[in-house]
Here is the input.
Amino acid sequence: MTNSRVPWLILTALGLEYSAVRERLSRCSTVVHPRGSRYETGYLNEIQVAIVECGAGNTSAAVECERAITFFEPRFVLFVGVAGGLKDVQLGDVVFASKVYGYESGKAEVEFRPRPQVFTTNYALLQSAKELARNSADKKAFIGPIAAGEKVIASIQASEFKFIKQIYGDAIAVEMEGYGFLHAGYANNADCMVIRGISDLIEGKVEADAGGSQLHASENAAEFAVRLIELHRPNLPSDAPPREIVGALAEHLYPLGPSENQLWSRAGGDLALLPLNQTGRAAWFSALKILYSGGGGKDISPLKLIATMIDDHPNNSELSALLMH
Here is the structure.
């Protein structure tokens, strides 16, 4: 049922979180799941990203995450949004979740007896997040546990707040989707991470939200998500898709050669640097030989060429798969 594979999938709960991610992507297009879920795919430079707004709550997050993972078969999956700060953080700070507690799991007796449920973040993503947190000079980022339940906690006098502080004392933020998201990721063997911007400190939540803190926190969380993706960018040309495979697809889709439909130029290349007396297969052979040697124009790369071909042929699964190699 896969529409096209993408290397990165990002989920958000709220519309303003979705917009904060989307505005950082280019060449976005809508994709509709056979059962009605609507996604957009776009590019962070030459890296393809799919985004979906799942709505609030762990259940919604789990359902949409499961569906999107099955549909896009991503390499990495992120949940990006806002959270309430519990300790150590200030408004606008970003938290990379090392693990997420499902704090409402337990047995209801005369007193509630917690039965902790927890899912952890992918190791490779967590290591990258630690690097970002160490080296960020403009914004503060933290690594730590997050608690997730089904309630908006808006007062430090709330019983849920006191319960989290007592039982999950190392949690530095609280939200409503991370546990369901990581549960779905675990069930699908996906490499996942939750990234949250701090939009309130529990007490004074209404005033903070009214002052635009959610937008600010969403922007910061999206910015750190972009930085995380950038850290996992393939190194070119050694990590580029095999030249022979790119050449076969290019020759099939553009039989006249790199100049057809201005493909080479739109991908950032300079046609004047290619042999001018060749067309078709010979032209592609020469062009890709030059490209994979580091030439062909200062702004072109194998992945930019593939991304431009995907612009022309968005439903070609073979092209999309090249970005997943």
